[in-house]
Specification:
Layout: H1 5-24, H2 32-40, H3 44-47, H4 50-62, H5 64-74, H6 85-100, H7 107-121, H8 126-140, H9 146-156
Length: about 200
Amino acid sequence: MASNRHLGRIITLQSIYEYEFREKAGDATADLDSIVAKNIKPYEKALGDTEFVYALSRNVMDHAKELDEILRPIAPEWPISEIAAVDRNVLRIGLYELKFSNATVPPKVAINEAVELAKAFGSDSSSRFINGVLGTAFKQLGLGDDKDSKSNEQSTSKPKAHASRSDAQSQPANPTSSDQSVKSVESAGQTSAQD
């Protein structure tokens, strides 16, 4: 069975959002693997590769502080703690895939997938904010060649102002509400929903 990595990223976002929320609320029973297992269960057949979700969730949370340190200078007017929880975790997922998974996930796919998550679960301005921050990270991490950098230059030169600074955003919706094909994002290029 083919893997549905787009759905896997949705479940990862849902799981790390819940984990972070419960951890901040002082819930001593919050366990990332248990949360991931609960969120995977209804979608196991459609998902295929469940290990992708476990690995991505664990890796993003294991590297959260490092990812936040990389993000901090890219969007200095938006302290990490003030970025809406959904957007913060979308940024972490996208940046993790850019920095650590670039051998298996092309950078443009990582950015496109993060933008699609932001469109589905963030505020109206989330997708532009995510695209700007990850596009800047892409250039700063030296992942693009000159051709890619020039084609992304206009949309990624500086992250635009972001309208939502609240951690009070609602929890990500049921993954099936956005289980649709990935749309083309001009600055990130076209990709398939599989990666």
